Amino acid sequence: MLGRSVLAAVSALALMATAADAKTFRYSTTGDILGLDPHMNNEGPTNTMKSNVFGRLIHRLPDLSLEPDLATEWERIDDTTWRFKLREGVTFHNGNPFNADDVVYSFKRQIQETSDMGFALSSVEAVNKIDDFTVEILTKGPDPILLLNMPNFYIVDQEYMEENDAFEVIQEAGKINFANTNANGTGPFKVVEWVQDNQVVLEPFEGWWNQENRTDNITRAEFVPISNDATRVAALLSGEIDLMYPAPLQDIDRLNADDNVEVLQGPELRTIFLGFDQHRDELMDMPGSGKNPFKDVRVRKAFAHAIDTSAIQRVVMRGASTPTGLMVAPGINGFQEDMNTPYAYDPEQAKALLAEAGFGDGFSVTLDCPNDRYVNDEAICTAVIPMLQRVGIDVSLNAQTKSLHFNKIGEAEQNNTSFFMLGWTPGSYDALNPLQNLMTIDGAGQGSWNSGRYSNPAIEELTDEIAVTVDEEKRNALIREAFQIHYDDVGHLPLHQQALAWGLRSDTVESVIQRPFNDVDLRTVVMK
Fold first, then answer.
1. What's the burial of 526, exposed, middle or buried (CB within 10 Å: 0-12/13-18/19+)?
2. 154: CB partners within 8 A, 6+ apart
């Protein structure tokens, strides 16, 4: 029989071994997630968190290719019918079994008007259960990118959601409701805690269907939003966090000078742009005038010629951006290289256009901008203001945290904006995505982030045709036509594609994959 001292020693050794085996990964970006409801908010870091927690029929790998997730195989039966075989033996984090009923329920939940994720299923007429592990997806017409959208179709547990009366998707970032504060998925990680604006804590789900093949080795992940650049850099240099993104451009040399820190850099597929209210007859910043200058294309063109995107690239972005004339980046299906020319910087032409439109004396407008979402977002907006003032536009800046910003310019507050900044990475990596989400308003799942309510009948028709055109050459010609109309309209004002820059503790992190959508997939993280 072991004595107490021996037992104590054994227990101490066991605790030491457990502590040694524990691999906590702490990482940070500029702002918190907007919630845990996978069908609610379509926003980068929020979508990344969903992807760690919830399963999809198909998963997108870091190289943008597709692999099976909750579906093991799929085939196209005819032009409008796809059959998916579902993975058997999968359980949700609470132990409930996954089956076809969950897929059908998730479809019905994700297509609600209040769901920002409805775009992924806009072409889908119905999802029908064939048996417990087979579903058929029926589309309204031929859909050339259905599979590309499947990584944006998140599967929830019908039983769990119904038990908690959580079918309704409640619009508004950060809204306190059951579905937005509780998560029960089939993904590789489960949520242990979310303290809004403080931290999200995750742990590996030991019952994950692909447990034997998982490549990460973390035992706990702590996501900590840190909005202040200097504070985020200090946290990385001190070892309080293991990874931060984005790394402030002005601090890259300082970070590289630390022997224990590595800066990862690469291209991103996100386009940063400005948008205008083209819907209201009277601009909110001009009460009593009965006028909305942004309804006049000459005013929008004046703004385009007043903003020097090269100066923003050189001074604000320190060279870490690519000025653009398109709403999609290279690498997105449908990108047109020869059309990717920014509007020419010409303040004198801008003044002439304003005078021709009847606004020679300018007007006042508020620029809504996030201060914790994109690389140097507030600094970009700050730089835009004197450029516009130079041609007679009196601009006031309203910069705030991304949750408030997205609420204000989005459907939660009925697009309560006159002039705004937004960034966009197409979730399908296809040009149809921004056409549907940003440039049209007249169809199911369309216009979810068309905050200025831009609409051109020709683009509306072209978008509907692009959605069902399978022939690649013909489809690209249609995309080209739509992009040209949008460019001539100055429907939005694209600024640039920002570059990726991550700061990494090389003494604690063995490896992580920097994906072109600028997020951290925890299943790629290996700690030392």
1. middle
2. 38, 39, 50, 54, 55, 56, 106, 110, 117, 185
- Residue 326 vs residues 210, 296, 332, 337: alpha-carbon distances, Å: 39, 21, 11, 9
Q: CB–CB of 382/302 below 8 Å?
A: no
24-28 and 243-244 beta bridge pairing: parallel
C-alpha to C-alpha distance for 244 and 28, rounded to whole angstroms: 5
| Among the ranges given (133-137, 156-160, 247-251), the one the predictor scored with the smallest mean pLDDT | 247-251
For residue 274, CA distances in Å to 5, 327, 377, 381, 494 come to 69, 11, 11, 9, 6
Which residues lie closer than 8 Å to 252 by C-beta, 6 or more apart? 263, 265, 501
Q: Which residues contact 157 (CB under 8 A, 6 or more apart)?
A: 92, 94, 96, 98, 102, 184, 185
- Could you tell me which of 219, 216, 249, 220 has the C-alpha nearest to residue 232? 249
**Cα Rg, the chain, nearest whole Å:** 24
The pLDDT assigned to 124 comes to 96
pLDDT by residue (tens digit) across 96-146? 999 999 999 999 999 998 899 999 999 999 999 999 999 999 999 999 999
Give, for 188, the enclosing helix (H) or strand (E). none
Q: Residue 362: which region, alpha, beta or left (left: phi > 0; alpha: psi -120 to 50)?
A: left
3-state SS assignment for residue 72 = strand
Cis before 246? omega within 30 = yes
- 180: closest CA among 43, 369, 372? 43
CATH, domain 269-499, list 3.10.105.10, 3.30.1440.10, 3.10.620.30, 3.40.630.30: 3.10.105.10
Please check whether residue 143 is in contact with residue 136, taking contact to mean a CB–CB distance below 8 angstroms.
no
Distance, in Å, from the CA atom of 17 to the CA atom of 15, rounded to the nearest integer, reads 5
Are 198 and 192 in contact, with CB atoms under 8 Å apart? no
- Establish whether domains 33-190+206-219 and 269-499 are of one fold: no
Give the integer Cα–Cα distance in Å for 322 and 383. 17
**Residue given tokens 């001074």 in the structure block:** 315
Q: Which of 387, 379, 315 lies closest to 345 in space, CA to CA?
A: 387
Q: Which CATH class is domain 33-190+206-219?
A: alpha beta
User: pLDDT by residue (tens digit) across 287-340?
Assistant: 999 999 999 999 999 999 999 999 999 999 999 999 999 999 998 999 999 999
Helix axis angle for 347-356 and 297-306, nearest 10°, is 160
- Taking residue 400's Cβ as centre, other Cβ atoms within 10 Å add up to 16
Per-domain residue ranges for the chain? Answer: 33-190+206-219, 269-499
